[in-house]
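Sequence and structure are no longer studied apart. As an example, we show below a sequence and the tokens encoding its fold:
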Amino acid sequence: MLLCCAVALGRTGQSNSPAKAPSAFEQTLIDCEKGFLVAAKKGDASFLKRTLTDDFSFVSFDGQLYSRQEMIDQFSEGGFDIMPYEMQVVPAGPESAIVTY
């Protein structure tokens, strides 16, 4: 109980300042991710084949890891309505990043 109270008190002291605007690079990655979501909804297999790299990985909400081909096979059917929220770009190295939501 004490831990919950301490966490709650710690959060109330945080400012409600707006999140910083994404950089141009971050916005490009977010826009690409949104394009992926549109393609998944429409079943646009050509978009997926054109934009997903050979080493592409997708981690679902439950931690399941999917390869490029598994994603192409799954999302080529269309009809997926993934609702992104609070998209963020997390650096994962000097030449890579992860878009989370």
